[in-house]
Amino acid sequence: MENTRIHAEAAESEARISEAEKEQAAYALAELVRSPSDPDALIMPGADVEAIRPVFELGWAMGVRHGHTGPALAGVPVDRGTVARAFVLLLSERPAARTAPDLPDAGPVVWQRVRYHGSLRSRHGLYWTGAVHQYALESGATELRYDLCEVRDDRLEKVVSRVRRQSLTPLPEYRSGV
Description:
Blueprint: H1 2-12, H2 19-33, H3 46-65, H4 80-91, H5 95-99, E1 112-116, E2 125-136, E3 142-152, E4 155-164, E5 168-174
Antiparallel strand pairs: 1-2, 1-5, 2-3, 3-4
């Protein structure tokens, strides 16, 4: 009998996610996906952040409405590994993620942070992938080459062009653009 009454009360108090809840969730999500080394960078592509946003907003609103976002662990952030694993598991259900090559072997994507360690020793360091070019080889195969950029004064400046994949180490940081 009691359960019936609780269910009826819950049904009467249903409401869409408010703008305030969406705003709070957006702020919390931005903090979770921000790179610790660069406040303008993310630990995952912006498209992936947008893909998980509705689920995050739902979880946030449910927590707020049930009082579970309170100070149980106030000031103790969730570790980034846990956050990253949750996002990877969620995104692995997407059809594009199932057909993509394994992440360690895949090359960087546009706006991903990379470490360059190629033949131009004076240019070794951290850059953003500004462009990915596909070139046809005589054998009929194709090869990807990368343009590496720095952001200076809110402008994108190309630093190294036509970089081979083996000269790069992709890092888990992404930009939304300049």
